[in-house]
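Thiamine pyrophosphate-requiring enzymes
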Amino acid sequence: MEKVAAILADHFKKWGITHVFGIPGKAVVPLLLAIDQKEIEFVLSKHESGAGYEATGYSLLSEKIGVAVGTSGPGGTNLITAAAQAKASHIPILIITGHPSMKDTGKAQGQDSTLFGTDLVDLFKPVTKFSARVERGDLLKAYLTHALEKAYSGVKGPVHLTIPADVLMEEIQPFSINLPIPQEMLSPKLHEVIDLLEKAQNPVLFLGKGVHSSKAYEEIRLLAEHWNIPVVTTPGGKGTFLSRHPLSLGAFGLGGTEKAHHYFNLGIDLMVVMGTKLSDMSLAGLHKEIYPKQVIHFDYEQTFVGKSLEVPTLFVSGDIKANAKEILRIVRAKDNQFDQMDPEKMS
């Protein structure tokens, strides 16, 4: 039998997590001690929201799930903004907040995050993919498994578990959970995408911060070079394409470059959108007179597709990296077929 806190720390170690971010508090002390015993570095943040941002950055760069810890009450509420940012950026992180002991539920308590006080479970629901209270040690496996599945399935994002102090100290039967392997989603419309790209006379690639989440840097560069497509980024998409690349026009929208805006003024017949919802900040300066004639919009979900720009839009669902890689595979297969049919290469 092992304590719940020790089992959580064991899993962090198993998943290759080297750093956990947060601020200590009485309700989470058992977990922090267990983390220390596993020689996982606890990064003391200046503020819980900073811990959430740090966990998000850790997840983005390491491709491991980031973990942020805050104590009960305000320690938890301070993490809400960071959770919202992780959700908007489709970054999987695990937020663990403290909670008064279950045996004291209903009593007057400082930093009460039960349903009798500031209910952290409900507060986190709009900004996470899953939020729950682990009320007994034997429920940890089920809740942790479900949280991880939610974090990595479909549109990735943050999840939240609040664990009472006495539950962290409960002894339960050890178990083992692996991090889910994300399933790559391919769109059935990739041949339509290729046809539109082949016909385009004045196209542009429009890249947002979602490209960072998918890490499709190389695939997008190859797509741009194959069709010789100029590339612009949103303000949040800076860094998704090398600014010194000959096809780079810099950023468009708020704080965009003169070169990018000039290119749009020439008239765009096809805008390929990847990793952005096309918010007002991304489209600042794009007037109706210079709207593209056609948009191809890559995204996991269709919520905002076709709403910012009222032009014919082809929605390409699924992961940017997986879809871009498949487009390249199809194009290369076609090129090889044509090479084999070339009389000069056949002789």
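thats it. The chain has a mean pLDDT of 90. The chain is about 35% helix and 20% strand. bye
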